[in-house]
């Protein structure tokens, strides 16, 4: 008999080590790993990267108009006509279905050597547009990294709540079993058993809803990471909040690194260069032209039956606007208004960022204090729950008091988890404003 029991235990151990790892084996995803996956896969980041590549390609002296343009051309014209010629001496020459052919081909070069410095302003603008694309890419990356981190720590909070609810269900089951035992020996009414069953069902329902929320948030994180939405994983529950952030240091970093401010300043510079290009159209444009052309003609009726020519042609073209219906003045006024608006937007953006920073820092301070408070509350609620549970088992505490202690404990866990989550979010927001998120 003993040998049989030993064999059964041994078999159970084998089954445990064989099957349990397969059940619990699940990717443990750290926040750093999630960020790296997003940097590699996220669609918005890929799109912003491609847009920057376009800006880099556009940033060239050729696109600014500084290089010559060379064109090859070929023209072949044929005609069949009924022709009649009356010469000065009165002779008449007439031919039906007279054929006339003309072939012209060659290479031509045109080079604008002066356009009021417009090409140089355009080249500077292309450089600023490349900087704009670079900053926009960094802003997209920073935003997505923040989204990943916030979603990740949201999952941490929910995972902690699920564990807390699992614990309360265990306690509720103990309460139901105790109530049933007391009812069996006649020390409790059926109402007490029913109340315990209702509370257990309520806790189970809450757990199911929490698990649903947890799974949908995992899908959301997988979406940001641009991977299979069904990918299963767990998150690391350790949440470390930096509670030593200083407003003065954050302000200094914001002035140097905030990407929104950088974009506003670049947009202002782009508008100024647009005004410069508009003013350049007041000046003359000088263009060099040269080419080598071959021309051949054939005619059935005329003084010559065929001609051919080839050779080099060259020259200079200069144009200067005199009057264009006051369009020049209107365009310059519009460009000046756009420069003024871009300057106002930069000032507005600076004020907005400072407001965001000040508000976020105040929220951060409050949340850091709440973390300390809620940690203490959870510890107190846990002790109260343990004492109440012991008294309930011996029948010295009524059901309502026990349920209150149980709910207070779960609420304390939820508030503590939420406080840590909110504090971490405040930290991420501050670092995002300061452009100081490390990845």
UniProtKB/TrEMBL annotation:
This is Outer membrane protein TolC. Pfam families: OEP (PF02321). It comes from the Bacteria. One of its GO terms (cellular component) is efflux pump complex. GO terms for molecular function: efflux transmembrane transporter activity; porin activity. It is found in: Cell outer membrane. Keywords: Cell outer membrane, Membrane, Transmembrane, Transmembrane beta strand, Transport. InterPro entries: OMP_efflux, TolC-like. Belongs to the outer membrane factor (OMF) (TC 1.B.17) family. SUPFAM superfamilies: Outer membrane efflux proteins (OEP). Signal peptide: none annotated. The keyword Transmembrane applies.
């Amino acid at each position: 008999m003993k040998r049989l029991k030993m064999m059964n235990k041994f078999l159970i151990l084998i089954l445990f080590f064989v099957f349990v790892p397969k059940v619990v084996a699940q990717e443990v995803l750290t926040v750093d790993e999630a960020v790296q996956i997003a940097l590699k896969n996220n669609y918005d980041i890929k799109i912003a990267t491609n847009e920057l590549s376009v800006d880099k390609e556009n940033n060239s002296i050729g696109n600014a108009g500084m290089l010559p343009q060379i064109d090859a051309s070929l023209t072949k014209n044929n005609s069949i006509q009924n022709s009649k010629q009356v010469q000065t001496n009165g002779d008449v020459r007439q031919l039906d279905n007279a054929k006339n052919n003309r072939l012209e081909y060659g290479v031509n070069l045109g080079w604008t050597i002066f356009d009021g410095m417009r090409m140089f302003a355009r080249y500077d603008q292309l450089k600023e547009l490349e900087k704009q694309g670079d900053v926009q890419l960094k802003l997209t990356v920073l935003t997505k990294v923040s989204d990943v981190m916030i979603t990740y720590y949201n999952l941490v909070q929910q995972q902690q709540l699920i564990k807390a609810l699992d614990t309360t269900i265990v306690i509720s089951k103990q309460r139901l079993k105790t109530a049933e035992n007391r009812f069996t020996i006649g020390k409790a009414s059926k109402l007490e058993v029913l109340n315990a069953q209702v509370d257990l069902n309520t806790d189970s329902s809450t757990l199911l809803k929490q698990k649903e929320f947890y799974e949908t948030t995992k899908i959301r994180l997988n979406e940001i990471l641009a991977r299979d939405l069904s990918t299963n994983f767990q998150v690391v529950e350790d949440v470390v909040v930096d509670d030593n952030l200083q407003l003065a240091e954050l302000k200094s970093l914001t002035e140097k690194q905030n990407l929104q401010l950088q974009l506003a300043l670049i947009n202002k510079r782009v508008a100024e260069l647009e005004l410069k290009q508009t003013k350049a159209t007041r000046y003359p444009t000088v263009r060099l032209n040269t080419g080598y052309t071959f021309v051949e003609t054939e005619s059935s009726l005329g003084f010559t039956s065929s001609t051919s020519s080839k050779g080099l042609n060259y020259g200079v073209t200069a144009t200067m606007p005199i009057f264009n219906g006051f369009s020049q003045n209107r365009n310059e006024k519009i460009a000046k208004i756009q420069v003024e608006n871009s300057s106002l937007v930069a000032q507005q953006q600076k004020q907005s960022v400072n407001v965001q920073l000040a508000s976020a820092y105040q929220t951060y301070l409050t949340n850091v204090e709440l973390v300390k408070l809620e940690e203490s509350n959870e510890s107190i609620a846990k002790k109260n729950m343990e004492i109440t549970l012991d008294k309930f088992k011996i029948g010295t505490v009524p059901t309502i008091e026990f349920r209150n202690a149980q709910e207070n404990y779960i609420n304390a866990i939820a508030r503590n988890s939420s406080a840590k989550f909110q504090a971490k979010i405040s930290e991420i927001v501050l670092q995002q404003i300061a452009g100081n998120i490390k990845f």
